[in-house]
UniProtKB/TrEMBL annotation:
Any single GO CC term annotated in Swiss-Prot or TrEMBL for this entry: cytosol
Residues in Metalloprotease TldD/E central domain copies: 121-224
Family affiliation: Belongs to the peptidase U62 family.
GO BP, one annotated term: proteolysis
The protein's name: Modulator protein
Listed GO MF terms: metallopeptidase activity
Domain named Metalloprotease TldD/E N-terminal: residues: 26-90
Pfam families hit by this protein: PmbA_TldD_1st, PmbA_TldD_2nd, PmbA_TldD_3rd
Domain Metalloprotease TldD/E C-terminal: 232-447
Amino acid sequence: MLTADEACDRARDLVERARKAGADAADAVYGASSAEGIQVRLGKLEDVERSESEHIALRVFVGRRSASIGSSDLSGAALEELAARAIDMARAAPEDAYAGLAPEELLTHAPWPDLDLCDSHEPSPEALRDKAREAEDAARAIAGVTNSDGASASAGRGTVALATSHGFAGAYSSTSHSISASVVGGEGGGKQRDHAWRQAHHAADLPAAAEIGAQAGERTVARLDPGRIKGGAMPVILDPRVAGTLVSHLIGAISGAAITRRSSFLLDKLGEQLFAPGIRVHDDPLARRGLRSRPFDGEGLATAPRDLIADGRLTGWLLDSASARQLGGVPTGHAARGGGGAPSVSVGNLHMAAGTLTPAELMADIADGVYVTELIGQGVNAVTGDYSRGASGFRIVNGELAGPIAEFTVAGNLIAMFAQTTPANDLEWYRAINVPTLRIDGMTVAGE
């Protein structure tokens, strides 16, 4: 894997080759990663995995035509051929009035803020194995756990670099550490499974492996012998494990691509009151050690903290340069690049601000409702906002959890769900999307 400086030089070199080959403009994105993971099951080593990848992608513009191409061969001869092929592809492509690099006057330049994304500690395979065993041992020690799907520990490193023909060049690296455990409880047809998982840039930010394992075991045992529910219209409580999906649907609906295609249920809601007054959804791509932190976006623009929802109101769209041109706006620093192609939209570290009530207070007046810990399926219509997903969790009776339930469906419309959302005060800060326990009134629950 190249260093950040080497990666930046390689991307600049490819852009220069593209210009010499006839491109009017070009950008290149380099991405590389390496990871090592150890999995154990029933106390025995089950799998040792080591992966390494390296890829560079080139996007060229010839007039209003563009094309993208990528390669894992970074030799000079391969890059020369890559540039020539990209030009040929672009000349055969249809014109796109909105395609192009980001506005030059908006480009950011070094020095960028130190986001502390790299951990100097690199655990040995033996240390990873010990963490995995510690997690599984703790999970299996919970009374009621009868089997294991295994536990794993991994560590990795990655580098991203971007260079453009109009003056941007930058790169950054990050590390990753994770621990997970998944176990089975019960016997026969009554078996249940659950898991726990944590990830961080720095190993020191992870809980003890035994804590993660015990959480997996406790979650599994809590699900044993689930009942069924008849359903009806009732309040739904979303556990923080799944509450972030509500914000994910919001992000998809306010992306520039969804708006330009007129395929968003929030198409005409700019500036409107979506949530109750006081609710805030904040994006911070510059949070130190944040899982989605980055000093610049996929087009070389600065990233910055921003309220997506302020006092319950939608503040604006998430725009890359192409969608900004189409909508007559300004790119917002949310462009993202994958293995190649045109930018998409991505956010940084999101959170919904905590409310004032504890989770217990949030459900205290619910005579009959459900507490959801797992959502199943993808039953969400991005155009209409209609929402219907399978779920499991716990029944709420007279303000208290009253035993596990499974095989039910929660349904509604996202616009109405947003309006009826109340956050609890139990916000935690370790996910990419951090959301407290949420109460949503007026949903339809279907069971038996």
